[in-house]
Amino acid sequence: MWSLPLGAPNANESLQQWLYKALSQAIVSGRLPKGGLLPGTRTLAQQYGVARGTVAGAYEQLLSEGYLVARTGSGTRVSTVLPDHTFPCKAMAARQTVAGDDPATELHAPWIKRLREHEPPLPLFVTNSLPQPFFPHRGDIRLFPVDLWRQLHVRQLRTSRLLTLNDTTPGGLPALRLAIAEHLAIARGVRVPPEQVVIVGSVQQALDLCMRLLSKPGDSVWMEDPGKLGARQIMHASGSRVVDVPVDRDGLRVHEGIRIAPSAVLAYVTTSRQAPLGMPLSAERRSALLRWATASEAIIFEDDYDSEYCFRPRPLPALRSLPGADSRVVLAGTFSKLMFPSLRLAFVVLPPHLVEPFIRATSVTDRSANGLAQSVMADFFVDGHFERHVRRTRKIYAARAQAFEHAALKHWQDLIEIPLACAGLDVVGRLSQLDERTAVRRLKLAGVEAAPLGRYTRGHNVGQGLVMGFAPFNEDEMDRAARRMAAALRESM
Q1: Please, are residues 59 and 68 in contact by the beta-carbon 8 Å criterion?
Q2: What are phi and psi of 89, to 5 degrees?
Q3: One domain, residues 316 and 362
Q4: Which residues, in sequence order, are bridge partners of residue 334?
Q5: Using a CB cutoff of 8 Å and minimum separation of 24, what contacts does 72-76 make?
Q6: 185 & 308 share domain
Q7: DSSP 3-state assignment of 73?
Q8: How many helices and strands, by DSSP H and E, does the chain display?
Q9: Running along the chain, 493 residues long, what does each successive block of 10 average in pLDDT?
């Protein structure tokens, strides 16, 4: 017999609201442990003497807010990542109603306050589990050659190579910088001396340092809208005036950025595949953007986050490859999507005048990226494993993109319109009949995760859609999830 004292309902609230509040408080306080199984709606209704619909309504609200998770075959359980941890902004703001309650908060007030105005792009606490269909922005870690990676680690840990365990230069391991420079010349058309390549922990870190070096509070910076959540949050937290520049089928509308904020000091762009909509920045727009940056002495931060995964037409070379771009463009790339997320290695290609101040800033804030991981990554490049791994996964993801399109045509007619997936790890599906809020709530109940498109925009109407990933799932996994998803979306239609 499942029993939990919930207290008496207030006279001015409904039974459903009382049950919702009582259960959420029990979860947050730990009386209901993370991962704990809750009884079915019928059982709980009988135990507390309420209608089954009352329990179902309370469960649905708790599911939509992330307190509960429901998966086929395992029932309804308390989430292992609670909303107070995943999205602390609203919860912390509610708790800290009196100024000065927390000296640390007051000490860091300007930066923390700006951070709390946005939800984090990623949960602050993440469980070690595979993503649920159709969680976006992830590759399939099951495809990574773990045994080979372990062998390369063992090679670095031989007695004769123990110097690998020492600190490395803040700019990065020379062998890895050289390997990246050689790779960029072939893959992205960027010819650059290795001294202008700097190894960092993430693209987020690189953007943060660029904001510190290139802007001061109040300066205008361009941000794509819709655009990457983490990039917008870093730019906003820096105290800059973030100018949300709309995008269309050709990418960033450069003329709009010039009209709104012609004297911006930095522009953030995803040139190869706009995040999240997926189109590349057209050649005409690239030229216009570079002309503006040159005339305004601004810097373009080119986030080249998944250019390796182009399935159909060959991708355009990086913006950094254009004549005159070497002094105006910071090109950033990450290995977290190509290899595995916890690797935490990325790189930037810097204009010559930014190399010394950027490395100096890196040495102060982070000393250097993990030296052992850099050494293994350098061997992974030099021995040809990186190219083989990318070529293999590109082929697999291309096949999965086709399988995803097939599943959409098979199960989602008149529900979601899916575009042709020409590149990347995810696509934006356009909802035909439901709004995002309703769709996401129903999908959670069916054990399907997708990100609402509205989460990526601040000032522009981009329509009702879902950002959906296909790369981490094989054909059978996608078909089963697509069937569950269709049933959930057609409910009560």
Answers
A1: yes
A2: -60, -55
A3: yes
A4: 346
A5: 72/446, 72/447, 72/484, 74/37, 75/37, 75/38, 75/40, 76/37, 76/38, 76/40
A6: yes
A7: coil
A8: 18, 14
A9: 71 85 87 86 84 88 86 81 52 40 52 67 59 92 96 88 79 96 95 97 96 95 96 92 96 97 98 95 97 98 93 85 96 94 95 96 89 94 96 96 96 93 94 91 90 89 93 95 93 65
User: How many other β-carbons are positioned within 10 Å of the β-carbon of residue 97?
Assistant: 7
State how far the Cα of 241 lies from the Cα of 245, in Å rounded to an integer.
12
- Domain containing 422 equals 388-490
End-of-domain residue from the set 324, 355, 386? 386
Total residues found in the chain within this entry = 493
Contact indicator for 134, 469 with CB cutoff of 8 Å: yes
Start-end of H helices in 108-202: 109-116, 146-156, 174-187
Structural domains of the chain, count: 3
Measured CA distances, 247 to 224, 279, 457 (Å): 7, 9, 11
Same domain, 362 and 394: no
CA distance 341 to 350: 24
Q: pTM, whole model, 2 decimals?
A: 0.77
Asked whether residue 100 is domain-assigned, the answer is: no
Instruction: Report yes or no: 329 and 302 within 8 Å, Cβ to Cβ.
Output: yes
